[in-house]
């Protein structure tokens, strides 16, 4: 049967894709060569086969069919497409070094940016702090982002060019993954940027736009990784779209220099979970330095990062077809953030707060401290690889920050321009420190003495005097309430079978130190124990059922335990903040 019969006009694209896919899998070179010229729509070569989620180029690379790969590439097969099941490109799925070289040659000669699948997301080297410093110095002019009119113009350019022209064009170029909702997502992102202009709050609405959809942050990070550093590299000839790079630079620098950035800055440990390939793993070497070209999404919660890494799912990941070696691994990266300007906690700003996200700013340098290959000891380890990275601190930046802090705290608003002024400034600073330090020490000592004499000593005296104090108190008439001579015991709730309370307020003060006892005059003066308990229970039922209170409405309910002679007393907190005798006070012990 000739190939022309296979491609009858009535046959739909799905059948063509399935036939071509199977031929590529079986390495039927002659049949594929006969079939390809007869396909009316050559874009079918890049369609995803519905049952496997991969393209023809994927399956040819996966099974190591080098000649077939070359044929497909010559006919325009795209090497940037990721398969649906494993999210891998054809390059990442192949184990053959010959095919990898073939793909890399094609990548280097390919001029269309949307098919650039071998993006350098990170740079590895020894002098990356210098590169980071150069970038920061280059964008230093944007520190004057306190002009709302200027910010509005910059964001207007982002909306008109980056969203309306560039992203829509990107969507059309990637029609393999065409998603009808992308236009709606772009409209929502545009609305966020307009709100940023109206409400003078770029940081909040950029984060909302960034975390809203996968489409926006993926394209943004791809563009940052591909273009921005080269733009500031004076050793290279930059030929990319200037308007594009200008928008990218503004998107990052408006965030870095936003006045509220320090409010969300984060230092400490955060985690990033991901699935990495063998090629990715080769990039990570112990004690190497690495610089991220794009934003890095991490989480303060290790378990969330482990979920993104595919914890416990190694057996379901991609392996080579013949010897069953892993092509991808579950990986957990642990980052130690040390500088203030490196990361922000966006949990309260994100559209996905459950991810507890820490966003690492582009162009940060880390050192690889440790690489744990758990899969070598346990093939079924829940996380195959763990990588520990520590931020490299830029001493120049630290010194600049310290100098800035000194000048801010000093009485000088202008720069110190000559030696005499500088010496005078240092002397004033020295004298100020010598005066303030003793004053602080004296103040602390006074506060300690006040605390001891107010709280500690009275408590010790009360404990030493014991019942003598009680006897003296019994002689007094406090607030018109005469204290009884007997010392009744506080009756435990379980003793009188109390109902469970509905709620308890979290007290803002400590429990009271003393109570005043008042007999409940509306009750019988003498009762047996059962009557006493019944009265207390009735009182609790009345106050909870009728009045709607959360519990019985007294600080203490006390029954004297003089055999069967029972009397009910009401206890109120006394001589302490929040204590009361009359009325309701939610701050007192109840």
TrEMBL record:
Key words of the record: ANK repeat, Glycosyltransferase, Membrane, NAD, NADP, Nucleotidyltransferase, Transferase, Transmembrane, Transmembrane helix
Protein name: NAD(P)(+)--arginine ADP-ribosyltransferase
Stated family: Belongs to the Arg-specific ADP-ribosyltransferase family.
PROSITE patterns associated with the record: ANK_REP_REGION (PS50297), ANK_REPEAT (PS50088), TR_MART (PS51996)
InterPro entries assigned to the protein according to its UniProt record, in alphabetical order: Amidase/PGRP_sf (IPR036505), Amidase_domain (IPR002502), Ankyrin_rpt (IPR002110), Ankyrin_rpt-contain_sf (IPR036770), ART (IPR000768), PGRP (IPR015510), PGRP_domain_met/bac (IPR006619)
The ANK repeat ranges on this chain: 52-84
EC number per UniProt: 2.4.2.31
Catalytic reaction equation(s): L-arginyl-[protein] + NAD(+) = N(omega)-(ADP-D-ribosyl)-L-arginyl-[protein] + nicotinamide + H(+)
Gene Ontology biological process terms, A to Z: peptidoglycan catabolic process
MF annotations from Gene Ontology: N-acetylmuramoyl-L-alanine amidase activity; NAD+-protein-arginine ADP-ribosyltransferase activity; nucleotidyltransferase activity; zinc ion binding
